[in-house]
Amino acid sequence: MKIGVPKETKDQEFRVGLSPSSVRALVERGHEVTIETQAGVGSGFADSDYSQVGGQIVETAAEAWSQDLIVKVKEPLQDEYGFLRRDQFLFTYLHLAADRTLTERLIASGTCAIAYETVTVGQRLPLLVPMSVIAGRLAVQFGARFLEKQQGGRGVLLGGVPGVTAGHVVILGGGIVGTEAAKMAVGLGARVTILDVNVDRLAELETLFGSRVALVYSNSQQVDEIVPTADLLVGAVLVPGRRAPQLVSRGLVQRMRSGSVMVDVAVDQGGCIETMRTTSHSQPTYVEEGVIHYGVPNMPGAVPWTATQALNNSTLPYVLKLADFGRIALEKDPALAQGLNVDQHRLLHPAVQQVFPDLVA
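-> structure tokens emitted (361 positions)
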């Protein structure tokens, strides 16, 4: 199969769909891989690194997009919509529930669009996990930075010092993102509270963290009481394929202390905070109701050397199946079939259909 790897166009998105080692694995299986020039530079891979393993470097995005299977990191942006076509596979993060325009364009194009974030093995989302781990850890790293006074924050050191209370990190959701955020926050010495609606998950987190983290069953009353006490609030709510539930109202944000920080990792699925809107690595924050809001949807793009390799470790087996078998791969692999969002002008994923019922044929 002919495989194309375009350079990412999202603001300061330095990850790349395939690393040189992944390209080598595909070439060794007899596939042709075309990489747009400079596509891997942000992740530390020169064009020559791809050429040495059999990749073909091209000068334009159009040439990379003209292949049969397109492997990306982030969803196509408006200037890439014209490259979408019917006789093509697109394998990338899509997050369609938060993007009606992209959903409509994919349907109109007829592209076979497979989303990393909905590939499912049992209850696991194997292609979301590596980026969730990174995003969870970065949420606290970035949050700690923006709590600094020079960044507009309260001037709170999350770990505190002897004689001064440590900062309070409140995490909404105890999944992978929330767990990784808690690990970082505990490591810094912060006081940490996790809220989750799954009692079994709270029990697992107790085994992991013991008394170092306060674990609270999440309901509206607990959210109302605990969120205003946060120096750093991390939104880590995930409903696979669907918009994130809105847990924090504007009224609750108004009750938070001036200069506190909110990082909503769920922003790429619509966000779980009413006042949160999408930002970018170039302009990551804004202040509303006196609170610093961080809503970058591609957080792992800040650490592309790590993130690209972690992502490829998980995606390569599925890329190989698509390259080897084409459409038959969707029949052979139920997990990959769960990733199918749009195909032949139809919206197919049940969770996204619930968000856009009027787009269902």
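The chain has a mean pLDDT of 96.
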